[in-house]
Each structure stands twice: as structure tokens, then as C-alpha cells.
UniProtKB/TrEMBL annotation:
Protein keywords: ATP-binding, Cell membrane, Hydrolase, Membrane, Nucleotide-binding, Transport
Localization (cell): Cell membrane
Record PROSITE patterns: ABC_TRANSPORTER_1, ABC_TRANSPORTER_2
A GO MF term: ATP binding
Protein name per its UniProtKB record: Bicarbonate transport ATP-binding protein CmpD
Organism field: Planktotalea frisia
Assigned protein family: Belongs to the ABC transporter superfamily.
Length: 298
């Protein structure tokens, strides 16, 4: 099999259990992400999503396993991998604009000051931040505005891989919806590869090309890779009318409600530990229109 742009191979994380032994968070997690793909990961609290993200960001080392990006094993943090956390992580003493130019100047050292500023302003505009807001400090912005700055900053740096750890978790539903739309807008204009943690099924369906489903921990596994067979561009009002929408949603709800527990600790996927691919397509003429779901092993 040709290797993916980002390839996670047999990733295992164990931690001390506090009683002299150890517990396994996940074992042999293996999956790939293609260049330009938007992949979300869903799973119950504690299954190890943030642990996977921290390893991808280079902020922690796994117990075993290999991660390759563009064929090269990765280790440690790098400007090639940008991260957006739930808590914004902006530099409080810098203005909005400087929070963005700071990273852009480091990423593109050959650029003039003007190029860095123009590039940064363009990305802030894409997330709706214009005018005097870009000269304010983070403490003078709303939570939604701060998260917009984080997203603009991450995309403006043009990392090869963008890691989003529940970026909208702290926002109210309306602000969340607006920023999701802005995120799609920014992402659509790039060939950016995105890996995102979310707890929100609807958010994952709206944004992702593919959703990875994890079973419950300990001994969690990435059990399924569900293709989001909804055409782009997507909006939250049009996708619900698509024949695939509820079939996909029901599948995800059913997995998180029942199968994530039933499969916990069981061996799933093929012998290489890759998740089962699930493709749901109810559109007329689709090969798997009847039955609706591709068989998924129980
Ligand atoms: N540094 C650590 N030392 C020991 N145990 C840890 C450490 N970091 C995480 N864990 C444990 O590993 C498991 C997975 O944690 P992780 O934060 O990755 O889960 P998660 O799926 O991201 O959860 P949530 O959705 O609640 O954020 C949990 O049981 C957690 O307590």
C-alpha cells in the first residue's frame, strides 16, 4: 500500500497506573491521512485523542510506534505542524496583528516586514477580523474573536499539518457556528491537511472528509474510518437535506452510544491494525445504496 502523507504506525501509549503497574491508553493505533484531507477524530472522554494529538504535535513521545510525515519520521515540535488549542494560547502582551506576524516572520524569514504584515492581515480578514480589532490585545477581545485570531495565526503560518484540539469547545453555539463557517472558508482556499479533535458529531460531519472513531479506553483503538459522503461546499442547512446525512449521523451516534463500548479492548480492523473503512452512500445509483451501510464487523 502506498504510504500516506501522514502515516501513524502502531502507536502505543502506556502510563503508570499509580499502583506500581501501568495501563494502556491505546495500542497499535495505525492510520493514514492524505495531503489536503480534513480528518476529525471522535471518541469518548479518556480514550486518548489528546494524547494522539500531543504526540503528532511533538509535545510528547509515545511508548512505541512511528509517525511519518512526507516519508520522514517526526520528533519534537516543528513549524511544519501548527496547533490550535481550546484555550486560544495567544501572547497577551502582543496585539492581534502581532500575534499573527510573530509566527509568519519566523516561518518566512526571507519576507520583508510589509509582506509579513500583508499576509497576516489577509488571514485575519478571512476570519472576519478587520479594522481596529487587529490592533487590540487579546484581553480586549471576546472569546470568539480570540479563537479567530488563533485560527488565522495557525493558517497564516501555512504548516504542512494543522492540529486542532477542540478549537470551539469553549464557545457558545452561535459563535461556534460562525467560526466553523470561517474555518471551512480558510481551509478551502489552501491545500492544508487538518487533524481535529471534537466531541460534536454535527461539527465533525460539517467539516470532515473522514471521521476516525475510537473505542473506549483503556486499550482504546481507532476502530473505524467513516467517509463523509457529502459534497462540498457544505452548509449546515443544506447537508441535512442530503440523503446521506442522517444515515451517516445515525451510524456515528450508534457507534458512540453502543459499539464504542462493545468493541472496547477487542481486536478490530485488519491485521495491520488499520481501522475498518465505512462508506455510506444512499444517493441514487450508488453501488451500496442497498443495503445502506457497508458491512461492519460486529
Ligand atoms: N501524563 C499522563 N500521565 C498519566 N496518565 C495520563 C497522562 N496524560 C493522559 N493520561 C491518561 O490517558 C488517558 C487518555 O487521556 P487523553 O487526555 O488523551 O484523553 P481524551 O480522549 O483526549 O479525553 P477528553 O476527551 O476528555 O479530552 C486518560 O485516562 C488520562 O487520564
Amino acid at each position: 500500500m502506498a504510504s500516506s502523507f501522514l502515516s501513524i504506525e502502531r502507536l502505543t501509549q502506556r502510563y503508570p497506573d499509580g499502583k506500581g503497574g501501568e495501563f494502556t491508553v491505546f495500542e497499535n493505533a495505525s492510520f493514514g491521512i492524505e495531503k489536503g484531507e480534513f480528518v476529525c477524530i471522535l471518541g469518548h472522554s479518556g480514550c486518548g485523542k489528546s494524547t494522539i494529538m500531543n504526540i503528532l504535535a511533538g509535545l510528547s513521545d509515545p511508548t512505541s510506534g512511528v509517525i511519518k510525515m512526507d516519508g520522514q519520521a517526526i520528533s519534537g515540535p516543528s513549524l511544519d505542524r501548527g496547533v490550535v488549542f481550546q484555550n486560544y494560547s495567544l501572547l497577551p502582551w502582543l496585539t492581534t496583528l502581532k500575534n499573527v506576524t510573530f509566527g509568519v516572520a519566523a516561518r518566512f524569514p526571507q519576507w520583508t516586514k510589509q509582506q509579513v504584515t500583508d499576509h497576516s492581515i489577509a488571514f485575519l480578514e478571512k476570519v472576519g477580523l478587520t479594522g481596529d480589532a487587529i490592533y487590540r490585545k487579546p484581553s480586549q477581545l471576546s472569546g470568539g474573536m480570540r479563537q479567530r485570531v488563533s485560527i488565522a495565526r495557525a493558517f497564516a503560518n501555512e504548516p504542512k499539518l494543522l492540529l486542532l484540539d477542540e478549537p470551539f469547545g469553549a464557545l457558545d453555539a452561535l459563535t461556534r457556528g460562525t467560526i466553523q463557517d470561517e474555518l471551512i472558508k480558510v481551509w478551502s482556499g489552501t491545500d492544508q491537511t487538518v487533524f481535529m479533535i471534537t466531541h460534536d458529531i454535527d461539527e465533525a460531519i460539517l467539516l470532515a472528509d473522514r471521521i476516525l472513531l475510537m473505542t473506549n479506553g483503556p486499550n482504546a483503538r481507532v476502530a473505524e474510518s467513516v467517509e463523509i459522503t457529502l459534497p462540498r461546499p457544505r452548509t449546515r442547512t443544506t447537508i441535512v437535506e442530503h440523503p446521506n446525512y442522517y444515515a451517516i449521523r445515525n451510524h456515528l451516534v450508534q457507534f458512540l452510544g453502543e459499539r464504542s463500548v462493545l468493541l472496547a479492548g477487542e481486536s478490530v480492523g485488519d491485521e495491520t491494525h488499520r481501522p475498518e473503512t465505512v462508506r455510506i452512500d444512499k444517493t441514487e445509483g450508488a453501488a451500496d445504496a442497498e443495503p445502506l451501510l457497508r458491512a461492519v464487523p460486529k
